[in-house]
Amino acid sequence: MNEKERVVEITKLLREKFPNPKTELNFSNPYQLVCAVILAAMCTDKLVNKITPEFFKRFPDPKTLANADIEEIKKYISSVNFYNNKAKSLSGMAKTLVVEYGGVVPSTMEKLMRLPGVARKSANVILNEVFDIAQGFVVDTHVTRVSQRLGLTMQKDPVKIEQDLMKAFDKKDWRLLSGAIVLHGRYTCTARKPNCAECVLNKVCPSAFKV
Ligand code: SF4
Predict the structure, then answer these.
(1) Which residues of 101-119 are buried (b: 16+ CB within 10 A; e: fewer)?
(2) Which of 20, 24, 91, 156 is 20–30 Å from 137 (CA)?
(3) How confident is the model over 61-75, as a mean pLDDT?
(4) Domains located in the chain, CATH noted
């Protein structure tokens, strides 16, 4: 099997396992997802999902959040790490949404990345989940690890890893694979104990049973 065939096989196997991968962050509108991805930096989705119901009740829209006092925002998010910085980002994000984008979450990478607290990775999540747009790959700690183990990249820098993935896979598959690789890393190809025995990719993975 040459490299092209191997990449096609990886795509097929991941598509079978994750036909419709979704973020595990809970949200019911684009504004809520932007808040959730800001809160999720260096933090588990599970913890974010625990605090967002109360947060969204108190700050249901960008205008309410933009007008809120930072100290009050902190109280609602104090159980997540870096909550001081995240409170500032949430406030800045809401102000930018209201002042520059008329309270509406924009649908381009460029505009999303102008929101405080939203870097390329988060922007990719928002574009994928809300707008069905694949501009690249979400490269988080799971995608970094799985891509390296699968021999799809030798890079450590997320921007370079994303470029390697964009070169390896067909653009039409980016959206699905972006979500699928995150979930595969979270539940099967875990950091400490990858479950190679039950991994659907174990016949096409150069690291199988070697990690
Ligand atoms: S075979 Fe093992 S190392 Fe390779 S992707 Fe699967 S779980 Fe990860």
Answers:
(1) eeeebbeebeebeebebbe
(2) 91
(3) 98
(4) 3-21+137-198 (1.10.1670.10), 30-131 (1.10.340.30)
